[in-house]
Batch of 2 targets.
Target 1
Amino acid sequence: MTNIYLIGFMGTGKTAAGRELARAKKWQFMDLDDLIQLREKRSIAQIFAEEGEPYFRRVEKRALQEIAREKNFVVATGGGIVMDKENIRVMKETGTIICLSAQPEVILKRTCGQRHRPLLNVSDPKKQIEVLLKLRAPYYAQADKTIDTSRLSVEEVVRKLLGAAPSGARHQVARRKSKVKSKKSKVQGKRKN
Ligand code: S3P
């Protein structure tokens, strides 16, 4: 299975770029937050307010597992999906992970005035962005490639994404090789014991 997963902080342009990337590749596009809202029949803000963040994370994980069964999808994920290592494993096994990043002040500018992100509905969103970015940096670093969108238009991001995402065939070969490698290391591990 081959999907492209766009990870990265809120306001880095995953949805806008993902939609255009899918169009360019003639693949399907899914924004994971939209899938969650569809399944839950309520908004992300309502889910956070009525059930709390841990519930949202469980639903988010289920939505990812649902889309991971598909292929040739560009998936724009929510900014916090990377905090669960099982989610990273699922994305790595079923596609390529590309992280979109942006400078904190750019994120603030892009997200201010929007009310649909509960985690940024706080008295000091600038501080919140800095704290969360720091906390999440090592998780975003697990992407196959990172593109800084701070100064790029959507078209420029898409052009870079088209260069970054491996073709299906190349990706399959890479995955077969890594399976062989992990089988070998298991065998070697057994021999040592
Ligand atoms: C979140 C990001 C949001 C959404 C939810 C939580 C996060 O998605 O999933 O509000 O934890 O960063 P976007 O990154 O698409 O805004």
Target 2
Amino acid sequence: PTTIVDELGIALSNLADAATGAFTPTLRLGVTGLSRAGKTIFITALVHNLLTGGRLPGFAPLAEGRFIGARLAEYPDATIPRFAYEQHLEALTGKTPTWPESTRRISQLRVVLKFQSKHWYSGMTGPSTVNLDIVDYPGEWLLDLPLLGLSFAEWSAEALDRADRPGSGKEAGPFLDLLESIDPLKEANDLDAEKLAAAFTDYLRKSREHQALSTLPPGRFLLPGDLEGSPALTFAPLPPQRQAIRGNSLYAMLEHRYEAYKDRIVRPFFRDHFARLDRQIVLVDALRALNTGPAAVADLETALTSVLACFRQGETNPLLRPFVRKIDRILFAATKADHVHHTSHDRLEAILNRLVANAGKRARFAGAEVKSIAMAGIRATREGTISEGGETLPTIIGTPMKGETLDGVTYDGKTEIALFPGDLPERPDSLFEDGTPVALNFLRFTPPQKLDRNANGDVVLPHIRFDRALDYLVGDWLA
Ligand code: GDP
């Protein structure tokens, strides 16, 4: 039958490839999420677990004894910064473990995975290899996709409308005042452009800090990567003008820079990096949003809507049409699940599922398979119980970071405590329909200070459900 001929065809071409070393399949995995969602920790844990064959019962190739090993390899594109895996691991596993520096720009790393295939012909071909290319990039950059469909005037109208809304006053005030004082029709000069851009960036940054607002583009204003201070980032929205706009005016200058931002920065990112991904994990600090309150949760949902819109197939999203689309699986992961007791992990997963489903409806999302998970790339807490007034409460045990405070106590970064973190609601409905706030006791913990070692003497990084995430993202490529 034809299928066997096909299979043989594959087997034979694999043989030939193995002989010449010509062809190794490459899985390009995108890792994104807003600032501090946990990208750096996830990738460091991912690479370390693969290199050392970590404790991953839920990762089928390893559980089935078919995973042979992994090694780091040179990344084919030398123009893109390399993910600083060794430095990050050193920070986490050094004498006094600390959290490594977070993602500020795009970076990549290639891991070569060697495994024994399950297929009947694998006996003929011997072990197989897959290149896993990990692409780390700020989620803020995804929020820029809508800009590709907006002119400077349209974007300005939207951005100024948002800045004018009640509630934005405190953050947007200085920028709006400055805007009042500058005539956009006067002759262009760099100083005005710089002052406006600085005030606008300041407003974006403050609204994120104060209200946990995470959704305001342009994404590079919040995370400029290597572009800090470059003219392409030196623009700001301007009000509509009644009189004709002259080519040498400030308005024309900023409009030009906005267009350059789209052409030179946003479009190449989507074309050269985003559109070439096979799989994507989106990390979400859902616990922080839940703890901040309903407005932050609503805002997170808006951000997820924008993110999902990027993954819409090219046919339905005209902005993406020029780019080839092929992502077939997206995993949304609520990170830092070690901040709640395991009895809340399923609940956290249900909440994220609900958030993503709502966002998916709004983004009219269709295309890739989507799944949600609650996990911790690196688990910083253990679990215990405390008895209080005849009641037994589940607790987490960890060392709060220096300077963290709770109930009037400030921690020194050395003292381990048992904390009742609070519960997540059993049904997500209570969050989304009744708007009941969730009260969590939320402290940042130091990374684990004592780490186990495996039979080879490698440290073992503890995690939560990380193996399931890995299996969903990579497992079937190693079948
Ligand atoms: P990103 O690279 O900006 O997305 O974020 P990072 O990976 O640097 O994470 C930001 C911070 O979140 C870290 O410094 C840790 O404090 C915390 N964090 C990230 N992942 C975990 C985790 O799995 N468990 C715990 N307890 N904290 C985490």
